[in-house]
Amino acid sequence: MKEDLPSGIDLIPNGVFGQDDYGATYLVEGEKFALVDPGTSDSFPRLLDWFEENSLSPSRLSSILLTHIHLDHAGATGHLVDELSHLDVYVHARGAPHLVDPSDLLASVEDATGTRFSEYGTLKPLPEDRIVPLDDRSIINLGGRELVALPTPGHAPHHLAYQDLATKAVFTGDSAGLYLGGELIPATTPPSFDLEKSLASLEKIENLSPSVLLYSHFGPGEEPGRLIDEYGQILREWVKLISNLNRSYEGEELVEEVLNRKEEWLGKGFTEEELSMNVRGVQRYLSWKED
Predict the structure, then answer these.
(1) Collapsed DSSP state (helix, strand, coil) of residue 119
(2) Which one of 99, 146, 167, 187 is at 20 to 30 Å from 248 when CA atoms are compared?
């Protein structure tokens, strides 16, 4: 996979949910080094092991860039800052307060994930002075290499994508879905999925003319234009399916009905638990849209 990555960017499998090919943390090398999406709190020892195996002193890291604060992307952040107190943490301004006091975030994750909550680990509070809130077109300078932040709401209101200006690669987080084993999978988990904002964010990413999409789940996606267009169509079909079923089923009955048709979607890489969460995210979206 390294040969598919742009120059100066490495992929670290962070072991999210105990899988080697599900969560990707990216190391970006300028004069200073940055990590993009360090994974869950359980990913922290994996990251340290990778640094040691690749003869990289963790002290060379200068910053962490978060696409969003969901625990499978941001959970290891507090552990890294505890270990390396000089690190700056870049995050959307709306997400910043939840890194200082993660209590509401953790409660929301528990509500969304149910019995899977323990798999998401935890999030240590961060010192406020280590957090750098970002807005549209903020620049992160790594010394000889710059990345630009782009708000990409839809999966979450505080979501950012980052473009590496040296290579035009875009770190998509979950804004362009999941890309597992060559298949695109909807990222519509609760509580904040919004179809229209997701589609608008895809258009923003496409307008960057990216050279490659670097998915947090999982790895590089070549042919960015095709992948973006295909994911937009998948999102529309997914929401349409649940909207149609929503006329006949309510609440958990709707979830069960989609699970009864799971062959249509489990072939796209979903587990039953993930399928259920993604259904509930669309249910919430349809509910507040009707209100």
Answers:
(1) helix
(2) 187
Token pair, residue 201, equals: 């964010």
* CATH number of the domain enclosing 57: 3.60.15.10
Confidence at residue 95, expressed as pLDDT on a 0 to 100 scale? 97
Is the pLDDT assigned to residue 240 strictly greater than 60? yes
Q: How much is the pLDDT for 3?
A: 57
**Radius of gyration over every alpha carbon of the chain, rounded to an integer in angstroms:** 18
pLDDT at 36 over 80: yes
Torsion, Cα of 247, 252, 255, 256 (10° steps): -100
Cis ω on the peptide bond leading into residue 218 (within 30° of 0)?
yes
* 156: exposed, middle or buried (Cβ count in 10 Å: 0-12, 13-18, 19+): buried
Percentage, residues of the chain above pLDDT 70: 99
Give the Å distances, CA to CA, from 86 to 45, 79, 129, 152: 19, 13, 10, 28
Q: How far apart are CA 68 and CA 71, in angstroms?
A: 9
Q: Is the peptide bond before 191 cis (omega within 30 degrees of 0)?
A: yes
Is 268 domain-assigned?
no
Q: Are 224 and 213 in contact (CB under 8 A)?
A: yes
Instruction: Identify the domain containing residue 30 by its residue range.
Output: 2-225
Give the least confident one: 68-72, 199-203, 277-281: 277-281
> Does residue 237 form part of some domain?
no
Examine residue 45 and state whether it is found in any structural domain, yes or no.
yes
Which of 256, 234, 229, 254 has its CA nearest to residue 243?
254
Domain count across the chain: 1
The mean pLDDT value for 152-176 works out to 98
pLDDT band at residue 291 using 50, 70 and 90 as cut-offs: low
